[in-house]
Give the backbone structure.
Amino acid sequence: MVNFKIADESLASKGDEALYVAENKMPVTTGIIRKRFEEEKPLKGVKIAGCLHITKETANLALTLQAGGADVYLCGSNPLSTQDDVAAALVKKGINVFAWHGNTDEEFYWCIRECLKESPNILIDDGADMIITAHKEFPELIENGTIIGCQEETTTGVKRFQAMEKQGKLKVALFPVNDARCKNQFDNELGTGQGIIAAIYGMHVLFAGKVCVICGYGHCSSGMALRARGLGANVIVTEIDPIKALQAKFAGYQVMPIAEALPSADIILTATGCKHVITPTKEMFDKLKEGVILGNLGHFDIENLTQILC
Amino acid sequence: MVNFKIADESLASKGDEALYVAENKMPVTTGIIRKRFEEEKPLKGVKIAGCLHITKETANLALTLQAGGADVYLCGSNPLSTQDDVAAALVKKGINVFAWHGNTDEEFYWCIRECLKESPNILIDDGADMIITAHKEFPELIENGTIIGCQEETTTGVKRFQAMEKQGKLKVALFPVNDARCKNQFDNELGTGQGIIAAIYGMHVLFAGKVCVICGYGHCSSGMALRARGLGANVIVTEIDPIKALQAKFAGYQVMPIAEALPSADIILTATGCKHVITPTKEMFDKLKEGVILGNLGHFDIENLTQILC
Amino acid sequence: MVNFKIADESLASKGDEALYVAENKMPVTTGIIRKRFEEEKPLKGVKIAGCLHITKETANLALTLQAGGADVYLCGSNPLSTQDDVAAALVKKGINVFAWHGNTDEEFYWCIRECLKESPNILIDDGADMIITAHKEFPELIENGTIIGCQEETTTGVKRFQAMEKQGKLKVALFPVNDARCKNQFDNELGTGQGIIAAIYGMHVLFAGKVCVICGYGHCSSGMALRARGLGANVIVTEIDPIKALQAKFAGYQVMPIAEALPSADIILTATGCKHVITPTKEMFDKLKEGVILGNLGHFDIENLTQILC
Amino acid sequence: MVNFKIADESLASKGDEALYVAENKMPVTTGIIRKRFEEEKPLKGVKIAGCLHITKETANLALTLQAGGADVYLCGSNPLSTQDDVAAALVKKGINVFAWHGNTDEEFYWCIRECLKESPNILIDDGADMIITAHKEFPELIENGTIIGCQEETTTGVKRFQAMEKQGKLKVALFPVNDARCKNQFDNELGTGQGIIAAIYGMHVLFAGKVCVICGYGHCSSGMALRARGLGANVIVTEIDPIKALQAKFAGYQVMPIAEALPSADIILTATGCKHVITPTKEMFDKLKEGVILGNLGHFDIENLTQILC
């Protein structure tokens, strides 16, 4: 019996189409791992709960875990990324999903709790919310050994757990997926960094000839700088870490303080993990060009950009 | 009184939003030329007919001609590019529009005729269809001097008129806009070349690590190659003009015959102006990778790509 | 019998080594054209005089013309480019050479006259000096049809002949090699543009992280900009032609007036064909960074750069 | 009193010119650190021995240490890199130098011993030879605390010391300079990677249009790949580490096994730290193009390249 709360079960067939694309574009997960899991069933009897972006790609992951014998429970790690059609398709295939697009903060935690109530053995987290909720509200799952291990996907999440570990508050074994070379040198630079550029470019904004200011020069932001330049923009990097700033300069970018960079910018993209990169003051606003495009690459929609726009 | 046939007048306010964007992104047309036209009215009493893509950008052109005193008549140069909301906004502002998304071949020519019936003095064409129709069906407009001059925007169109001129059949003064350095070195390379890449990239297809085959190395296709490489693709160029092929090679691309290039391709984009670049045979099909993305940059949707897909 | 005046005949065997390299690196000239010329002897009885850079590459051209049956007479088109070892090797192989490194202005014209005294039928020029000397001092060669045609290799030379033609003063048939697509889109952009960059880079100057100002954005200078960027420099372009300036901007470079660009420059390279691009004033000098590298790509060593250094 | 053995003291004034360039191009070492050292004399009474490339840049380092109060003793870390003029200039300024271009293996170790005989307190090594010699032949310097610390600059050297540490054989405190972000992300990628490209490019080899095979995709080799592409080459990477190979592929390079890559190569550069990357067999040789350029970036001249050429 499948347990779930989603937006609309009738979207399942549309979700199936999305799944078809993902399965074909993820040959390692689909063709190699799932195939082996189907034969070996290494996860038989294991309950896995994931707090993830409910998209066609994580759907493919969930179905692969299921193929390995696991019972899978999913909730959404970001209310704005849940694809309701994919959720419906997953439910039809026997994945327990508690997620719908645009849920509230309260509903967000309700969904996490529904997953944890099922007494999962492994938690897969994207931003630390599920594992922290387990610590706070389901401590018995940790104490009695029901939860045997956890994973965290993001830089943000890993940093939160490192802080907990220092204070002696982290009570579970944790695998920081984010720190794998295969994650941060690919997903962060090529995937995340590309996402925001693709979103803007896909609206047929011409990057060629424009001044594009990239705030930050870490994995994600250096990926964004590379792509913006590849599309013909003149890229200016702002960065407070002196060694990263030097790397940006030696990569051929202009590097300068943000206050100097803003007045000439046609496009400004921030990816620093911090708030207030562009301070939301009238003084700062008055410096910006009419029609400048502002974008932020971050965990939620409440980072610096929104604050500017208020 | 405005004369028109469009899809839906009620879309005007949505079209106004699109116009707002275009007006802000086209400072020369809007801020310099239109301002001067409003004062000087150089086109007072002139009737201008345009067979153009009915988009927010050409809308901005039409309104600028109107500001200069002209009566403007528009029909769509491609049934698939007409934006019905923009058409509605234009009608409300007094532009005579005969265009709707997805019209048939017959309707396409009906729209051209509606414009020509108004006895225009200047024709602005995108693909030669309106000017050729004027020659065939409205010869009196040419003979009696009503039509004082024409413009053609595209490589394809200019080539058709050069052929007509050789045979002594071109009866109007024609300005080949396409041959202006400001057109082919910018619009073709940066705009047209970018369009198809932006459309695919905007669907979050990762170019990095993929093999992208670009068929042709003219203005549009070399622009596509540059952008595909800028997005991290390994680009292979196919080109039958030996000097252009050499240019592609010296620009650092692999250059090879199309039959050799196809088997390794993840993305194939053609921009040659010719049909059958990829021959629609079973033999050719069997060489292609599962899931390859095929795209064509051309005047209509009946070029080589569609033929493959049939 | 070979007629010649060169620096040192004993350098011939060293010149042979240079020739060996050129012959292997120029497979079309050596392997295809020379082979055919040896069989067909299409230039039998023809006297060809060339005023060219006496380097291993033009040596390969001269030997190929000789293989076709021609008598070849060479003088140097630039006193600083003549390779004395190559000149010696050529003399030994039967080419009539009048050239040595560092000859004076007077000697330069003496060498040209020695070639013209031989009553050549075809002139190959690099900078217009030989053909103009023929007009001035050997008009009978033109009038009596001894000279049947001429070629000019450079932009500078072609411009001089276009001016002469307008005034009705050009009396010979002239083939402007420079205007061939195979010349200006390859030799100018890739070869000439690369030369100055290679010379500096070969001294192990790090371009990465430096600000490199390129004055001009024609064939040669755009090639230099591309290479400087490819080596990691942040490139600023200065250009007075508005369309070329726009091309530079859309290629992702910063574009600004020279006076604004100079103060931040680590390397400044000019390739405009004009003098005084950097005006040799104290005011301009005081703006330059300590240790800035200045370079000029031009026909002689008396263009703007030297004037600065005086 | 200065102790030394060099090639030719009379070269000192030529060496001074080289020093002048280095001092101006190294503003941090010269302008900031040396200035502070001159005032604070933090190294007063300290003996420092360096086994380094005796070039104008390390000369600048030696003079800065001297300005801080140290007695400096230098020997060359590579017999082929010693600049005899720089050595002469250093001796004249009071640096004890034991180095000359082209010394033999036996002489190489004699020079190291001369430095160690002076009972230095700090060793600066480039390749591990001096520190290992200290362990083997001057153990008392380590045991009695004369040597208070060591530095090693290269990847190769650091690896040797890590192996010694594992076996409990490393007896000194060692600072692995190579592992500093400021070293391997700049010196290795930008400097070392550039060196070999600059050497070839400086001989006016056209990279544009050539196939350049880079063996390896570590810090140095990825820098070489970037520069070769920046000069217009079509770059193929060979790499046995699967994650690095994937990085190369996602950076847009072709990636393939070396045996597949060689036949199309115009230029082959190896930077793997290993021998026999290109196996010196007749079978391999027969695959190479006539006139292919082979280069190796390594610690000595006895790595794979030489072996091929034998």
About this structure: Residues 303-310 of chain C have pLDDT under 50 and may be disordered. The first strand of chain C starts at residue 47 and ends at 52. Residues 188-309 of chain C form a domain with the Rossmann fold fold (CATH 3.40.50.720).
